[in-house]
Amino acid sequence: MKSTLSILFLVSSVFATSPHLAAADPIVMNVWPGTPPGETKTLPAEADQTKPEDRLIAGRRIIKLGNVSTPQIAVYQPPAEQSNGTAVVICPGGGHHILAYDLEGTEVAEWLNTLGVTAIVLKYRVPARDPERRWRAAVQDAQRAMSLVRSRADEWMIDPEKIGILGFSAGGETAGLTAIFQEDRQYEAVDKVDQVSIRPNFALLIYAAGIVEKGTTQLHDYIQVDQDTPPMFFAHAFDDRVSVHNCLTLAGALKEAGVPAELHVYATGGHGYGLRVTDQPVTRWPEQAANWMKTMQLIP
User: What are the distances in angstroms from CA 23 to CA 18, 27, 160?
Assistant: First the structure.
């Protein structure tokens, strides 16, 4: 409890100094009613692992949240008069080592709130538990979060048919697999929440990792796209150290399956910029994402 409170205090401090304050304090809930599936050991206390010498993003530090053992969702709701019923679960990146909790989490929630979208920041387990399937714990947490959010749709004034998922880097892998697996739950049901669908209605993958086999342009064999796969939006820089083929190949597979998708590949921009605007055109991707959401009739 102490570590959780310290992180919430840290996140609150970030918002206190932000020029774009959240509409209200988030609703924070544990994802699981007890111990998450597959947990067998105790990690050190959850903490921000950012070092003073770490690279700044757009001139600012970021929160690198590590040793997450208790997955949680933080629900940021737009003002009631602006809410349009759409919701998005946000999966921060961090290589399945840490979570870039503000850069690719709470700052994204602020932006989505300005669109009238309910934003749910997922604090999933890191570091990775399974060396063979490094995404497994994260996807379990994301699937459970999808069911949990959909089970609260009436309470949070959400349309249960307009709940999407958005992820960055390793969080993009998490979001993408959650969308692709659809109803293939990666854990045994634990309660009535798990009777609710885990399927995202749409997905936004930003500089996603882990979609293709390393060093190739081939999708992993467990990634199977069909006509029921949710529509997707992609943004990636061509010079990203994480291969642009993660987006190109998946977008191509969606095209073959007849699934709507929009792909934006920028010449330069690298990796890990979140929503922080720089002189690189790639950092304007949120404008294109908002336009896509309008086209898909997810926001007015």
Answer: 12, 12, 22
